[in-house]
Amino acid sequence: MFDEIATKTLEKCRVQGLSVATAESCTGGLIAGALTAITGSSDVVDRGFVTYSNQAKNEMLDVSEDDLNRFGAVSDVVAKEMAEGGLKAAGTDLCVAVTGIAGPGGGSKEKPVGLVYLACARKGADTIVERQEFDGDRDAVRAQTVERALELLMIQSDA
């Protein structure tokens, strides 16, 4: 499903000698899965963190408990901390992070189903953070999130 964009992402990172980690919440490992489905990905992909709970985000990625309580897990602040925390914990060159509401439940007026925050950190560069509102059911939201996360890795590989 993601073979083409995952292959391009890996090739771009490989050419530049960049290692990658993922820090995932709403995708539950699908980004790492998309990358590692490609033969030879082990020379680029180092590890993936699946941090579905706030406790996991705090323990594995050093996301601030105060920020989780203040802004919520689905926020730009937490996405940025996830990406930067994953970068530090993994010791990689790049880390992409996602947190969102895939649905069908869990949404609110302020944070609707389909809302996803993505962040991509790179050593020595500013972290990219974006807010997306994806359409469709749970599978569609997760698929769009994976695709955009892979695009962000390609963008950040040029930083």
What can you tell me about this protein's structure?
By secondary structure, the protein is an alpha/beta fold. It contains 6 helices and 5 strands, in the order H-E-H-E-H-H-H-E-E-E-H. The protein has a 5-stranded mixed sheet, with helices on both faces. Strand 1 (20-24), helix 2 and strand 2 (45-50) form a beta-alpha-beta unit. The chain is globular. The two termini are 27 Å apart.
Distance between the termini: 27 Å
Radius of gyration: 14 Å
Largest sheet: 5 strands, mixed
Strand content bin: 15-25%
**Residues in helices, as a percent range:** 40-55%
How would you write the strand order of the largest sheet?
2-1-3-4-5
Average residue pLDDT: 97
Output the helix-strand order. Answer: HEHEHHHEEEH
Contiguous runs where pLDDT drops below 50 for at least 5 residues: none
How are the SSEs placed, and which strands pair?
Blueprint: H1 3-15, E1 20-24, H2 30-36, E2 45-50, H3 54-61, H4 65-71, H5 76-90, E3 94-100, E4 115-122, E5 128-133, H6 138-157
Parallel strand pairs: 1-2, 1-3
Antiparallel strand pairs: 3-4, 4-5
Helix pairs in contact: 1-6
Summarize the structure.
By secondary structure, this protein is α/β, with parallel strands linked by helices. It has helices spanning 3-15, 30-36, 54-61, 65-71, 76-90, 138-157; strands spanning 20-24, 45-50, 94-100, 115-122, 128-133.
